[in-house]
Amino acid sequence: MAKIFTKEENQAWSKTLPGKMCSACIALRSSGKVLMVKANYKDHWTFPSGIVDENESPKATALRETTEEVGITVEEDKCNFLMVIYSTSNSGGRDRFNFAFVADLPDQNIKLSVPNGEIEKAEWVNFEDVAVRANNKGSYIKLQEALLGYDKSIHYAEVHPDINVYKSSNTSTQ
């Protein structure tokens, strides 16, 4: 008969497994535009985003990072799932799951504040300009397509920068 692991044994075993990095972002939409930020340590623009901390859900991360990066507090029930993008590593980094959420704000004239030195700028941009602002990173190409509503059934995409392949799939069963 096989041994049944204790909770402690199972936790110890799971910590030895290779893992993927997990991040989360929010696409804040208002008046046909989306908010993007330029962090001082990146060469491209992104949505407010960050790495998911231990014991934190992706949605909680996205909400926290939005408050930290642009001073906007989004109510949890106003923040909806958009898609998950899996990106394989290029140049020795770690593979990543990025959980993307979307929230609609009534007025883009909201006063943005940058409460720390991490963010250089925050600007409202047209949906069509998202990928270019993000230096055409595969994940932001997919996010731009989702924001433009190309295929509302796509909730998962894979980005493989080393081989320049972008795959998408929907969550419905055939």
In words, what does this structure look like?
With 174 residues, the chain is of the alpha+beta class. The protein has a single domain, classed as Nucleoside Triphosphate Pyrophosphohydrolase (Alpha-Beta Complex). Helix content is 20%, strand content 34%. It has helices spanning 7-14, 58-70, 130-133, 138-147, and strands at 21-30, 33-39, 45-46, 49-51, 80-87, 96-104, 119-126, 154-160, 165-170. Strands 1, 2, 3, 4, 5, 6, 7, 8 and 9 form a nine-stranded mixed β-sheet that branches. Strand 2 (33-39) and strand 3 form a beta hairpin. The longest helix is centred in the middle third of the chain and has 13 residues, at 58-70.
Extract low-pLDDT stretches. Answer: none
Q: Within the CATH hierarchy, at the fold level, what is the topology?
A: Nucleoside Triphosphate Pyrophosphohydrolase
Q: Give the H and E element order.
A: HEEEEHEEEHHEE
- Distance N terminus to C terminus? 39 Å
**The first-level CATH class name:** Alpha Beta
Helical percentage: 10-25%
Question: Any idea what the shape is?
Answer: globular
Radius of gyration: 18 Å
Structural class: alpha+beta
The total of helices stands at: 4
Number of discrete domains? 1
